[in-house]
Amino acid sequence: MSGALSRLVGTRRAIEWEDRFRYSAAVRWALCQWKLARTPRCDDTDAQGLAKAIEHLCGAARMAPHDDLLHEIEGEIMRLAARLGRQRFDWGKFEPASGSKAVEKGIVLKPWVSEREKGVVFISFESQVTRLLRHVDLEAFARRYLLVMSPSWSRPHCLLLAALPQVHPGPIFTLVSNPEDLGTFARLSPRYVPVPLYASNWVNPDWVKPLPFERKDIDLVMVANFGKFKRHHALFKALRQMSPQLKLVLIGQHDGPRTREVFLAEAAAFGVAGRFELRESVPHAGVLDTLRRAKVSVILSLREGSCVVVTESLFANTPVGLLEDAAIGSRVFINAATGRFLKHADLGLQLMQFITEAQNFQPRRWALDNNISCFGSTARLNQILKDHQLAAGQEWTTDLAPLHWRPNPEFVHAHDRERMKPAFEDVRQRFGVEIGMPRLYEM
User: Fold this and answer.
1) Which segments within 157-247 are labelled E, that is strand?
2) Pairing of strands 218-223, 248-252
């Protein structure tokens, strides 16, 4: 074996072994124990110390390999969070941000109507919710608005989600990234009201017009950033079993130090350089156009959030392949009509068969029939909030404005942007933060 070939084989083996260790139950148990051992001890007056301890415990919770250990860690997290909630805590010192008071990934879905009918503010991503904690009087905010949030990852354990119920006096409605998170939030605090909707529930089917199957000119597409957790190496390995005549398109963008050059070097290590077209930092409209031109779409992550690309693929009438053990929220949308669960062994042969049989699937029809679009999701969220408020003796005379994400929450209808301007202004004047992108105020 030549020196160059030996180095490529070594690189390939290192990538595969690192991935294997990352998802090993034994390794996760060891990392969990290591994080628990490093959790600092502190007294009730040390707010920063309590916050650091909670962060360590949350890291351990994300690694916990079984439920008994997870629940034990969660109990300690909430015990410390209750102690932290009694302190004056400077989020700016512990979790530095730009200092911006703009919550770009937020939207006011319902205006304040009366003392008995609150408005509704929707915010996605934990870092965006943190800006409320940094800049807003949460007691005053909770008297006027209901908070709906959308976490970005599963498991969702983090300092913000542990501390929020201790400082926000009202109910906190939260979407989930995985069905198991419904139980997680219920355990973390009775203030959480888990909502069985995902970040992938807000795709607008009108964004993409499907192509007839005979006009699809891409055999397989994978839309994923270059992060290790996206596991492109599994596709590179699979390509060694697949026909070199296939047309494959990979869409992504750098993830920290994992640049285009690093990505292509990994493909070369697996001997599949030049076997696909790489498109970097593609605008959303271009992503959707590529999805509708593809026969199949594949995601090879083993754990992440809900993965919006899955739902976008379905509405593009492109069936989706996920690994059978993938802990991804959107797996609930995969069935005989919409895609296929794949085994790790002989992945390339399975993908070849998937492509051959792609025209037999009807993903868009299923997605529309089962109302998983932004329209159906707005209606479900509206009903959950309405039922909760009526049960609490409040009123509900005004429904939510329909929203979709592209990539931030936005109104579906232009007339809602105009109608809701006073509500955005109310939040800005009363609480000193701007909810939503600036253009929402200008349109």
Assistant:
1) 172-174, 192-194, 218-223
2) parallel
Local structure of 245: helix, strand or coil = coil
- Convert the pLDDT of each residue in 201-226 to its tens digit: 999 999 999 999 999 999 999 999 99
DSSP strand E in 300-417: where?
Answer: 320-323, 339-342, 403-405, 409-411
- Give every CB contact of residue 73 below 8 A, 6+ residues apart in sequence: 32, 36, 57, 60, 61, 64
Query: Contact 236/272 with Cβ under 8 angstroms?
Result: yes
The C-alpha angle 174, 199, 413, rounded to 5 degrees, equals: 100
Q: How far is CA 181 from CA 54, 156, 177, 198, 329, in A?
A: 19, 7, 7, 11, 9
Q: What share of the chain is helix, strand, coil (3-state, %, to 5)?
A: 50, 15, 35
pTM higher than 0.70: yes
Each residue of 364-409: pLDDT tens digit?
999 999 999 999 999 999 999 999 999 999 999 999 999 998 878 9
Domains along the chain? 3-85 (no CATH), 100-197+376-442 (no CATH), 205-369 (3.40.50.2000)
Q: What's 432's DSSP letter?
A: S
Contacts of 376 (CB under 8 A, 6+ apart): 201, 370
CA torsion, points 363, 369, 375, 381, in degrees to nearest 10? -110
The Cα 415–Cα 7 span in angstroms is 60
The amino acid that residue 128 corresponds to is: Q
- The position carrying tokens 């069905």 is 179
Cβ contact 203:404 at 8 Å:
yes
**C-alpha to C-alpha distances, 110 to 106, 122, 168, nearest whole angstrom:** 12, 9, 19
Question: For the chain, how many residues are written?
Answer: 443
